[in-house]
Amino acid sequence: MMQEVQNAIWQVQGQQKGKTITIIGGTHGNERTGVEVVLKLKSLIESGDLRITQGTLTLIHGNPRAIEINERGSEPFADLNRSYPTDLLMHEPTGEYEDARARVIAPFLQKSDVVVDLHATNKPSEPFIACVHSSYHEEVYRWFRSEKVLSDPNYVLAGESITTDEYAEAHGGIGLCYETGLASDLGRVDEVTQNVINLFIDQGLVEGQVEIPDGSREMYEMTEAIILTDEGFHFTEGLGEGSWEEFKEGEILGYHGESPFMALYNGVIVFPKLPEHRKVGKALAYLAKKI
């Protein structure tokens, strides 16, 4: 029987020992596909249509307060996915909601063999995986539709290990983020739900057989952040509209005020932010290159 073990955290255990898998949706409250996938999995288990026979499954709505208001965070610029330093539970609480919520979720991440955090982008993007490049991670992400895998071995995203998947990695698990597409698009809820169920079958939590999907993936690595300065920043016309826009070495990508920002290599733009999510001193987009 599935039980709510903490606010918006549900868990079910099989009759036999096995792996511990955690699925998170709504780390950012406006990214609704993950929110709905968690609810659908919960409903399938409670109805008996999906039976966990071994291991432990934890389903989490990451940020209930942000989900309720359909915003990225509980307040402007708050970000649950920048709230998981490796030594989180050794720090004094900050008093902020996202910090408090991360402290509730962290022990479940520490105990997980596999963590899949379901996200979506605020500007158009094809689905993609964000995680460490390894054969162990491939055994997890192969169940999710994606042609690209993005890694961040040098912590370009935030300067340190601080996301849900990185926290799981730091405590011995396999963590990955699956970007399902555009945040406002709920057209893939059923597909992603089935992707997750296929993962459960492969990992032994659910009985059954599933055929390993075909398909190779392109590997990318994050290289640098474009930081917003007091001068402001605007992209060159035609750029900054979505993730995976390609650029060439020597191309002007945009301008800090009147100063051009030139690409020093061939690559792609990822995670360009909406204007309302930009903050001086913080990244407004990131660059990556194929490896």
TrEMBL record:
The protein's required cofactor(s) are namely: Zn(2+)
Annotated Succinylglutamate desuccinylase/Aspartoacylase catalytic domain residues: 18-187
Record bears the keyword Metal-binding:
yes
Instruction: Kindly state which keywords UniProt assigns to this record, in alphabetical order.
Output: Hydrolase, Metal-binding, Zinc
Write out the GO cellular component annotations.
Answer: cytosol
What molecular functions are annotated in GO for this chain? Answer: hydrolase activity, acting on ester bonds; metal ion binding
Please identify the protein, giving its name as recorded.
Succinylglutamate desuccinylase/Aspartoacylase catalytic domain-containing protein
Per the UniProt entry, what species is this protein from, by scientific name?
A: Candidatus Uhrbacteria bacterium CG10_big_fil_rev_8_21_14_0_10_48_16
